[in-house]
Amino acid sequence: MTQMAISPPAAASEDPRDRGGPAQPMLIVDGIRKYFPIRAGVLNRTVAEVKAVDDISFYVVKGETLGIVGESGCGKSTLARLLMHLIDRDDGHLILDGDLVGEETGVPLDGLRRALQMVFQDSYSSLNPRLPIEQSIAYGPKVQGASSKVAKAQARALMEKVGLKANLFAQRYPHELSGGQKQRVNIARALALDPRLLILDEAVSALDKSVEAQVLNLLEDLKRQLNLTYIFISHDLHVVRYISDRVLVMYLGQVVEIGPVDKIYEDPQHPYTQALLACRLSMDPEERVEAAPLAGDPPNPVNPPSGCRFHTRCPFMEDVCMSKAPSLGDVLRSSAQDHLAACHMVHPGSGHSRAPLAVRA
Amino acid sequence: MWLYALRRIILTIPILFGVTVICFALVQIAPGDPIQNLLSPTASQADAERLRAAYGLDKPLPVQYVIWLGKVLVGDMGMSIANNTPVTGEVLRAFMNTIVIAMIAVVIAFVLSTIFGVAAAYRSGGLVDKAITAVAVFGISVPTFWLGVILVIIFAVNLSWLPATGMGAGGSKGFDYLSWSDFRFAVMPIIALALPPLGIMTRTTRSSLSEILNQDFVQTLRAKGLTETEVMIHAVRNIMPAAVAMLGLQLGYLIGGSVLVETVFTWPGTGYLLNKAILTRDIPLLQGTILVLATAFVLINLVVDLAQSLIDPRIKRS
Amino acid sequence: MTDAVANSLAVAPSQSAPTARVRSYWGGVWQRLRYDYVTLFCIALIILIVLSAVFAPWLAPFDPYKSSMANRLRPIGYKQFLLGTDEQGRDMLSRLLYGGRVSLLMGIVPVILATVIGGLFGVVAGYYGRKVNMGIMRTMDIFFAFPSVLLAVAISGSLGGGITNQMLTLTVVLIPPICRVAETATSQVRNMDFVDAARATGASTTSILFTHVLINVMSPVLVYASTLVSISIILASGLSFLGLGVSPPTADWGLMLSTLRQSIYVQPLVSAIPGVAILVTSIAFNLVSDGLRQAMDVKA
């Protein structure tokens, strides 16, 4: 199960940290689940649960960038925090380069922490306002046992690496930095433990467009230099297309579509993905959409709709959509080139009038 | 709304329970053995044990607590050691004297603080603002018992306008707040009580008013052509729910904090009773008074919260 | 844009580059405080009061305990008695200087003790949340059911007078409000992303608390604690006034006020002096804490 045949990634490499070989995915997420209890009433009892992340499975190939998109509130950030073990998952497994994470036999949490790091979105709360940025970056290495001097030298080298002159910036406090500079510090801090997989949670969303482009280019360069794998979470479809190799689309805590970036953007299978893509602003005035393709807010994740969770907003809704939840298929056994969608319209014999009649080759 | 009220009332129960635990503990932390005080010096060890059993003091503490709580719930708070009278009656009589002057003081403080707060916020940073802020700082920093002494020096000693202490003739035959010959005894206690809440409420009113005056919707009102006075009325209306809540809270503090002022003026309220209990080391009386005052404070807070949630629907604290 | 990126990847740090002079947090606080003359004046006043209390044995013109029946209740400026004498003929100025020792001690020591204890409980409650928070904060709520003066009188009245009991009482009274402020500040910091970033490095809870949480919780707690000094002084003098503080021969502002109360008809001005000392000290501490709050309000 942990060893499976996947086409080797484009940027195969000889990394001394590699354990499972180039074909082993960097990270496998298997059936991960997180429900948040809602307490209410006089006695503060649990009356319902928010299904923030509901049975999600996927893998990340070594050296690729996996983009994760979806509306706000669909569980993207919860997923990121689950992967980082910042919140406990209710169910599911994580397999890091062939080893189970967190359980007795697998890699200890400490090992996961060194291999997996995260760049946070909100640059206001992501840096300790009372620490000079050099110390913010040096904190991780110090925790992992580096001497104060070594950690500092490392922090300064990293600052240069992300484009901040150490002499000018080392002693500054976060409030003396611009948004773009703070985000560079954030990236430097995440790199300080020499991770292999970086989770970027809306890492450029709060930046001006010009600064955003600079940081994106920096990320591309760092990825090549340091042999990194990225999970890039964003609601900005343009940015995701620019940076990703593959894209995963989330809706109400579930994966609705996954596949290579070009297939997703040029031939979206799921009506939700189609609607999301139609929402993008076009540069061509003739092609601008006037009517919103996605009407209304996403349904309440406390009581998600029965059957297909998207049926309340889907233009192609039929009876089968209300009664039966479409499956995405076995993601973990699929190849990285495969394009999967959780929609009755793509599954032959599903009962939907638009479903293909013959089994696809 | 009703759910909020119910929830708020239910949350009060454990607090009141905690209050009784603390009041019960007061007797336990008091030094000295209560039994020894009751015994004659010649009494034997066996006499002591018999008396201890008679008062139930030989039982474990939780049992003693439950017995005590059961009595308190039916209104029996024991006997005062000094007077040998029931504590309950004495405390309730004193409580009436305290709550009336505390209410008058807090209403005066509320009215004046609103006027001062508006005047200070009207020209923020101006001379009036500075003067009012100075008065407020004085009110917050002044020890009330010293203020009482100063008032006595000025109005009783130097000017002989007001009586220095006590309740006068009204103390024995029923105090009439509407007749000046009785009420003049209450004037100085009320002033001394009113000053600290006046300082605190003026400061709060001023700062919340100037905060509101800086908000966007006020600019819109000005842009619509409202006069400054009309704008101020809008702003005052906005802070009223919070100000009313503040009033209730201050009333609670006054009832609890009246001990010093009442001691200075020998005003026969709960504070004076507390002072008497301390001087004579009358622990049952001390315990009973504290219990009544703390319960009153909790209930006032409850009423304030409920009233505020009625006035201001935004407030739904958990 | 490409230039910027090319620059950003220049790994070799250039030694000749200018080093930035950056002001630390406390440097910034001082910069703001420098031009706040009211606060500076009050700080100076407090230093003066503290010094005069500390050096009371050298500054006091007379023995504060030596009474004289012949010189009872002399007015201000009578002969060598600058501030007159009290009801036992003791020099007021000397007693005021000595009295400052007890009163300042009562203002400062309970606040320090309560800040350490209450702060600890608050940080633990705020950081761990859930059941720990429930347990600690609901217990504190019970103490909030008592107005502070009442709680002080209740505890002190049961324990009896004396300097240790007074200090203990004030500490217990001040713990709940400090605990609440520390808890609020901690739970705000705890939800910040930088704490998650620190957890993601595998740091221990202790390390995170000391490096990331305490440093951010400290300034709101300290500012709040500074407002309590004046409250503690007033509470302490109130307890002494009720006879729950130091025992009589010892000089203490609250106690002096209480014993001189009988003499207001004879020497009203002299009787009011201890109250002036309490008032001035309390106002000074109040204004300093106001100034500190403004100066420490740093935008992160």
Automatic annotation (TrEMBL), chain A:
Domain of life of the native organism: Bacteria
GO molecular function term, any single one: ATP binding
Keywords per UniProt: ATP-binding, Cell inner membrane, Cell membrane, Hydrolase, Membrane, Nucleotide-binding, Repeat, Translocase, Transport
Gene3D superfamilies: P-loop containing nucleotide triphosphate hydrolases (3.40.50.300)
Presence of the UniProt keyword Nucleotide-binding in the record: yes
Transmembrane segments annotated in the record for this chain: none
Domain ABC transporter residues, every copy: 38-277
Region: Disordered, residue numbers: 1-23
Subcellular location: Cell inner membrane
Principal place of residence: membrane
PROSITE patterns the record matches: ABC_TRANSPORTER_1 (PS00211), ABC_TRANSPORTER_2 (PS50893)
BP-aspect Gene Ontology terms: peptide transport; transmembrane transport
Keyword ATP-binding: yes
Catalytic activity field: glutathione(out) + ATP + H2O = glutathione(in) + ADP + phosphate + H(+)
Enzyme Commission designation: 7.4.2.10
GO cellular component terms attached to this protein's record: plasma membrane
Bilayer topology term: Peripheral membrane protein
Function: Part of the ABC transporter complex GsiABCD involved in glutathione import. Responsible for energy coupling to the transport system.
Quaternary context: The complex is composed of two ATP-binding proteins (GsiA), two transmembrane proteins (GsiC and GsiD) and a solute-binding protein (GsiB).
Family membership noted in the UniProt record: Belongs to the ABC transporter superfamily. Glutathione importer (TC 3.A.1.5.11) family.
Protein name per Swiss-Prot or TrEMBL: Glutathione import ATP-binding protein GsiA
From TrEMBL, chain B:
Family annotation (InterPro entries): BPD_transp_1_N (IPR045621), MetI-like (IPR000515), MetI-like_sf (IPR035906)
Presence of the UniProt keyword Iron in the record: no
Subcellular location: Cell membrane
Gene Ontology molecular functions: dipeptide transmembrane transporter activity
Membrane topology summary: Multi-pass membrane protein
Domain ABC transmembrane type-1 per the UniProt entry, residue ranges: 95-308
GO cellular component, one term: plasma membrane
Pfam families in the cross-refs: BPD_transp_1, BPD_transp_1_N
Membrane-crossing residue ranges in chain numbering: 9-30, 99-122, 134-157, 177-200, 242-265, 285-307
PROSITE patterns: ABC_TM1
Keywords tagged on the record: Cell membrane, Membrane, Transmembrane, Transmembrane helix, Transport
Family: Belongs to the binding-protein-dependent transport system permease family.
Name of the protein: Peptide/nickel transport system permease protein
Source organism (scientific name): Kaistia soli DSM 19436
Automatic annotation (TrEMBL), chain C:
GO cellular component entries: plasma membrane
Entry superkingdom: Bacteria
InterPro entries: BP-dependent_transpt_permease (IPR050366), MetI-like (IPR000515), MetI-like_sf (IPR035906), OppC_N (IPR025966)
Localization per record: Cell membrane
Annotated keywords: Cell membrane, Membrane, Transmembrane, Transmembrane helix, Transport
One Pfam family hit: BPD_transp_1
SUPFAM superfamilies found in the cross-reference section: MetI-like
GO biological process: transmembrane transport
Membrane topology designation: Multi-pass membrane protein
Keyword Kinase set for record: no
Domain ABC transmembrane type-1: 100-289
Bilayer-spanning residue ranges: 37-60, 102-128, 140-163, 197-215, 222-244, 264-288
PANTHER family assigned: OLIGOPEPTIDE TRANSPORT SYSTEM PERMEASE PROTEIN APPC, PEPTIDE ABC TRANSPORTER PERMEASE PROTEIN
Assigned protein family: Belongs to the binding-protein-dependent transport system permease family.
The name this protein goes by in its record: Peptide/nickel transport system permease protein
Source species of the chain: Kaistia soli DSM 19436
Taxonomic path: Bacteria, Pseudomonadati, Pseudomonadota, Alphaproteobacteria, Hyphomicrobiales
